[in-house]
Amino acid sequence: MSDNPPIDVVHAPEATAEDQQNVKKETGTLDEQNDASRQTKPNEDVPPDGGYGWVCVACVFWINAHTWGVNSSYGVFLSYYLSHNVFPNTSALEYAFTGGLSISCAMLVAPLATYLINKFGTHLSLNLGVFFEAISFIGASFATKTWHIFLSQGACFGFGMGFLFVGSIGIAPQWFSRRRGVANGITAAGSGIGGLMYSLATGAMIPRLGLAWAFRVLAIVCFTVNVVAANLLRDRNKAIGSRVVAFHAPLFKRPEFLLYLGWGILSMLGYVALLFSLANFALSVGLSSHQGSIVSALLNLGQGLGRPFVGLFSDQVGRINMAAFLTFLCGFFCFVIWIFATNMGVLCFFAIIVGPVAGTYWATVSPVLAEIIGLKDLPSGLSITWITLVPPTTVAEAIALTLRSSPQSKSPYLRVQIFTACMYIGAAACLWLVRGWKVRELASIEQKTTTTTTTSTYPVTNPTEKETGLTPDHTTPPISPEDTSKVNLWDPLTVWQGMLSWKRV
């Protein structure tokens, strides 16, 4: 076949069909050249959608289990502190700040962790996290005063969790395109499975081994698992060409990003209040401390089993759609089930059913942000996100305990339950507004692409679609400033139409 003469050149005037075939061949050649050049052009990188990415998913899963999962067991510690007066003259509000302090310190350290990742690579941040977390538990085992717990179980543990979390949270999305949602769901499930294991483990260890040795066992186990997982992780920052900077100021000029931050703030106010209050709420309805630890464990079981399915279905129906709907569903469950839970059976049912949706934010935060600002700005966007979450995570449980009525009242946690439900529903409203913007953005991009295709000789290929491996109706890159100046995507009528129309986003 290679010896055939170039007939299409000899009979050019009559070879219309062959010309079209040649155009397709030339286009295919260009595509092959583009595929080859992707290895050297970070902005055209194609995620492998698997391979070593599954090892990274497993590593992040276990890191989450031994950071956020262990932190989830603080509800058991809190219940023990309140019922045994471990540190005399310490108020319930002070104990509540310890749990919130660990999460807020994890968020507070995010810019430093991002800077270290940019300067020295991911593994330095991860190993610093391993060190701080182990030291925190060793220090807590020798605590004799309240401020010792503040520094060890609160601040030091939070720093360790923050270095590990910031160093690992953005890695799984870098390895996947079509399966990004399910991969992130699996990694997020680690915190639920860890919370299940350590809620039961701490509930059993404290009465048998004592508080001090419970902390020491946690230190040994967490150090061993985290040091292995952290050093097996590999990021793809160079391949993608990520902007690994602590703050990317132009993001604050985008209303969709500000609403996304609102979704996070309100979600965390509800999530922390629910997570840390449930075990103590069990005591308020006449259950024992052991039963309270079981309820807390069931909540974490629901998170662990539900989050992979959240990721899987978000890939099918749209990541923003899924995140907004499940956030609203959690608030709905708090209104119609939690308020009426007065015995062990109903409370266990609530813990299991609310578990998969309570931590929707953590299961979808990276994929949703990638839909809004793109993969390149994802590290910067996440860094800003973690700093924004410092205030709500610090005060959420303190607010919950302040709203709690006198233990002698009929429903001491009623105001806490209403507060939690309203926070989740408000968070869903913020994200639904973002959905309206995203639908209109997709429509504008598709209209522009269609117009360009009809006026061009060669087919127009969207490089970001190749990069993500997703269809245009699933995700597309944010349109350029030149395009947004022509189309006001935040026109109220336009956003309202986007909120009401069905589209997979």
UniProtKB/TrEMBL annotation:
Stored SUPFAM superfamilies: MFS general substrate transporter
InterPro entries cross-referenced by the UniProt entry: MFS, MFS_trans_sf, Proton-linked_MCT
Keywords: Membrane, Transmembrane, Transmembrane helix
UniProt keyword annotation of Transmembrane present: yes
Coiled-coil annotated residue ranges, if any: none
Signal peptide annotation: none
Keyword Transmembrane helix tagged: yes
Bilayer topology annotation: Multi-pass membrane protein
Assigned protein family: Belongs to the major facilitator superfamily. Monocarboxylate porter (TC 2.A.1.13) family.
Protein name per Swiss-Prot or TrEMBL: MFS transporter
Species in which this protein is naturally found: Paecilomyces lecythidis
